[in-house]
Design goal:
It is found in: Cytoplasm, Perinuclear region; Membrane. The chain is an all-alpha fold and 152 residues long. Helix 2 runs antiparallel to helix 4, helix 2 packs parallel to helix 5 and helix 4 packs antiparallel against helix 5.
Length: 152
């Protein structure tokens, strides 16, 4: 709606939310490309379509990609709640600068989490990125609960 497009907080949320969704697509594409490049397929039908059953095998890089499914699942477990929290938080009319900071911290944390996984960065980089990204979500959730509590 036109009124929603006037909401600077919502537009900021839409920007960062879209960046995160695109990041999820990129991770999925990378996983598929590594499977094709390494010719190591988890399903016999995929191996047959790509050269033969000898490619129905395991490969260390592909196994890491398979664990990327965990990273993708981790994204879904974190980004989808952020999308809900951010949308509702946008309706509370918070300060645009504070809201933007919430969205940026979450987005940056999730990107660093993914980069740490893909590039095998030393611990605790990934867990710190995960934890930092949770802070704005808890903040938004608390503010939503406080705003909604009188209507409970």
């Amino acid at each position: 709606s036109p009124r929603m497009m006037e909401n600077k907080v919502f537009l900021s949320f839409a920007f960062y939310g879209t960046i995160l969704i695109l990041k999820m697509y990129v991770v999925a594409i990378i996983t598929g490309q590594v499977r094709l490049r390494k010719k190591a397929f988890a399903n016999p039908e995929d191996a047959l379509r790509n050269g033969g059953l000898q490619y129905y095998r395991e490969d260390p890089d592909v196994e890491r990609c398979r664990r990327r499914v965990w990273a993708h699942r981790n994204d879904m477990e974190n980004i989808f709640p952020f999308l809900f929290l951010g949308a509702v938080y946008s309706l509370l009319e918070p300060s645009p600068a504070v809201a933007r900071l919430h969205f940026f911290i979450f987005c940056a944390g999730r990107i660093v989490h993914t980069v740490a996984y893909l590039l095998r960065l030393k611990a605790p980089t990934r867990s710190v990125a995960y934890s930092v990204a949770q802070l704005p979500c808890f903040s938004m959730a608390l503010q939503i609960l406080l705003a909604a509590a009188p209507y409970w």
